[in-house]
Amino acid sequence: MGTIVCQACNSTIDHFEDEKVTVLYSKCKCCDNHQAEEEV
Ligand SMILES: [Zn+2]
Fold it and tell me: Which is an annotated Pfam family here (predicted)?
C-alpha cells in the first residue's frame, strides 16, 4: 500500500493502492498554504 505523507508536518495525507510499499511526499492543504514558497 502506498502512503502520501506531508513533507512539512509528517502527517499522513492519503493512501493509495500499490503493489509495493511506497511513500510519496507532498504537502497537506494546511502546509501548502502556509509554506508555499519553501522548497526542499
Ligand atoms: Zn502538513
Answer: SR1P
What pLDDT score was predicted for residue 33?
80
**CB within 5 A of ion ligand 1: which residues?**
6, 8-9, 28, 31
Q: Which three cell numbers stand for residue 35?
A: 509554506
Whether residue 16 is predicted with pLDDT greater than 60 in this model: the reply is yes
Distance of CA 6 to the CA centre of its chain: 3
| Ligand 1 center from residue 20 Cα (angstroms) | 24
What's phi and psi for 13, nearest 5 deg?
-90, -45
Instruction: Please give the pLDDT value at position 40.
Output: 54
